[in-house]
Design a protein that fits this description.
The complex is a heterodimer of chains A (271) and B (343). Chain A is elongated and about 80 Å long. With 271 residues, chain A is mainly α. Classes of the chains: A mainly alpha (271), B alpha/beta (343).
């Protein structure tokens, strides 16, 4: 064993808070841990790789003819829609995995270390942006293969991709909250699907809004998912930045402002 | 009271690693920890002994800032576990009952992540990880994922992870539960070496021999309360005298032998049926010579003779009134034996 002796506890100079810099460093280390975990268990990427491919193919060929007359003119409508739906659905996994992770002994160690309390959560959520990126790239790639040529250009498509990833990250705080308060991982999945399914389908993601009944149009138009989809369409198809982008970013900010603190509080209280 | 306590603390000047007063934690109506006081001297090994569900783990989790106590207070090197939790976390290492390491990562990756979280630089973290793996004999398995680790390797890695920051106080929650005897002995050595470098160790165990082997002082916990506290010898002395155990060569001599014992030692002896073993309390060792001479005179030949000091098992049973639940059959066996001794 070590020859050096351990410094007595009473003689150490210590502080009772974590600095902002340390919080960032801790979160990045936890994100690194998340990435290592993805590398060790690549099978957990099945959903983000298969879902964009299958959904894009399925929805385009099923709805294309009925909604836009032909596949080619439906692509600019469906690709942004599918993108938002897929990436946001992926963010459910964050909550599910967080639940599973927290049930393991290693979280006890994180809690007993002198690190920023938010780091294990922030790190996990940060690492998951890799999943969103994979889903985003695959959806655009599928679209391209099927003949989608966004008029906004590559730069604007990239901005749209970043926007979707940022918003998915913000929304994942909601599922992280469910993940922290739920008893089991499968109940997280259940609750999240109930929330997300109406939210993504009661939007302009797949179908033009004016075909819907009035009362439904009202909801679809205030649905933040609709704004995000519109923002992505504007960027990718015409290269314009509209008010919808602003609303999307504000919405993302509000979600983080509400759910990040309550998630961290619930996480710290939970044992 | 609080004032007095604080003054005492200043005077102690780091003498106490742990001071807990009236710790309470209830889960619903179940008071898992129900008013526990603990004092652990710096540089010692302190054993918290109790059966499953006695509240050992809950008590440790409160001291390690993982659980907030419902009532009472605890100080680690004079720092309050609730108000100064972040300071306390810089002074402790915690090794949980179930290995608190990442299953899907390798040993090196685990240690590097914990080192990085503790503020070590990239190169420094790598060096520290290698150093600890070497020290705990895990170098060969360093790159393998933990899924393939044996229980003992996992525990060693767990302990290694607790030592990264060289904390002056280490909590070990049942460090050898489920380990084979050889690995257990290795773990004990590691813990002893740890204390030599100046660490204080607070460990929980349900194995009496483990507390006997390692701990300087022991608290026996049952139903969330400390039912006894003291050094190993003090606890043993509280249970009573050693016992003399004899086995006669010819089982027909048993009654004869018992009569002789009664005459010479002036005590009642008992016979355990299956082995034909006679057990008698031995208050005065000097009288044993007389007994042996008397037995020779009677023509009774002995097959075996031994003297047994009261084990912690007996201490435990006397104090808690029940055996260690995990080895139910063994415990009930032991309880019979202990009762016989006390008759």
């Amino acid at each position: 064993m070590r020859t050096t002796t351990i410094r007595p506890g009473a003689e150490r100079k210590l502080k009772n808070y974590t600095s902002f810099g340390q919080t960032i460093r801790n979160s990045l280390t936890m994100a690194y841990r998340g990435l290592l975990k993805i590398r060790r268990t690549p099978e957990q990427l099945f959903d983000v790789t298969l879902q964009p491919i299958i959904f894009t193919l399925m929805f385009t060929y099923i709805f294309g003819g009925a909604i836009s007359g032909d596949i080619a003119s439906y692509l600019p409508v469906i690709i942004p829609g599918i993108l938002v739906q897929t990436v946001i659905t992926t963010s459910i996994v964050t909550g599910v995995q967080l639940r599973e992770d927290m049930d393991k002994g290693v979280f006890d160690r994180f809690k007993s270390l002198p690190i920023a309390r938010i780091a294990p959560l922030a790190g996990a959520l940060l690492a998951d942006t890799v999943r969103y990126t994979i889903a985003t790239v695959l959806t655009f790639t599928m679209g391209f293969i099927m003949g989608y040529r966004p008029d906004g250009g590559l730069g604007n498509v990239a901005i749209a991709a970043v926007l979707v990833i940022v918003c998915a990250w913000a929304i994942s705080w909601i599922f992280a909250f469910f993940g922290v308060i739920a008893r089991t991982a499968s109940s997280v999945q259940g609750i999240s699907m109930i929330v997300l399914f109406p939210l993504t389908f009661l939007s302009n993601a797949f179908v033009p809004v004016d075909t819907m009944p009035n009362w439904l149009q009202w909801f679809v138009n205030i649905n933040p998912i609709s704004h995000l989809v519109t923002a992505v369409r504007d960027l990718a198809n015409t290269g314009t930045i509209g008010w919808d982008l602003g609303i999307s970013l504000i919405g993302a900010g509000v979600i983080v402002a509400i759910f990040a603190p309550i998630t961290v509080r619930a996480y710290m209280r939970r044992t | 009271m609080d004032h007095l306590y604080r003054k005492q603390l200043d005077n102690n000047h780091g003498e106490w690693a742990v001071e807990a007063r009236g710790l309470v934690k209830a889960f619903g109506s179940n008071r898992a920890v129900d008013g526990v006081d603990l004092n652990v001297r710096t540089g010692s090994i302190y054993g918290v002994l109790g059966p499953n569900g006695a509240g050992k783990t809950t008590a440790i989790r409160m001291l390690a800032t993982l659980l907030r106590p419902d009532a009472g207070s605890a100080r680690i090197f004079g720092h309050d576990v609730v108000k100064e939790s972040q300071i306390v976390r810089q002074l402790i290492g915690v090794t949980g009952q179930y290995a608190s390491v990442d299953e899907s990562l390798s040993a090196t990756e685990n240690l590097i992540i914990f080192s990085r979280l503790l503020g070590l630089g990239r190169a420094e973290a790598k060096r520290k990880a290698d150093e600890l793996l070497e020290e705990f004999g895990l170098t060969e398995a360093a790159r393998r994922p933990l899924k393939n680790f044996s229980g003992g390797m996992r525990r060693r890695l767990d302990l290694a992870a607790s030592l990264i920051a060289q904390p002056p106080l280490i909590f070990l929650d049942e460090p050898t539960t489920g380990l084979d005897p050889r690995t257990r002995a290795q773990m004990w050595d590691t813990i002893r070496r740890l204390v030599k470098t100046g660490s204080t160790v607070l460990l929980t165990t349900q194995y009496l021999d483990e507390a006997d082997q390692l701990a300087d002082r022991i608290a026996v916990i049952d139903h969330g309360r400390v039912v006894a506290e003291g050094t190993v010898d003090e606890l043993k002395a509280s249970v009573g005298t050693s016992s003399l155990q004899l086995r006669v060569q010819n089982s027909l001599d048993i009654e004869n032998a018992r009569r002789t014992i009664e005459q010479v030692l002036k005590v009642q002896s008992i016979v355990s049926s299956e082995a034909g073993k006679i057990t008698a309390p031995m208050a005065n060792a000097d009288l044993v010579t007389d007994l042996l001479i008397a037995l020779r005179a009677e023509g009774i030949h002995l097959a075996e003779m031994s003297v047994q000091k009261p084990s912690l098992d007996e201490v435990f049973l006397t104090l808690t009134g029940h055996g260690v639940k995990e080895d139910a059959s063994q415990a009930s066996n032991e309880s019979n034996k202990a009762e016989e001794v006390r008759v």
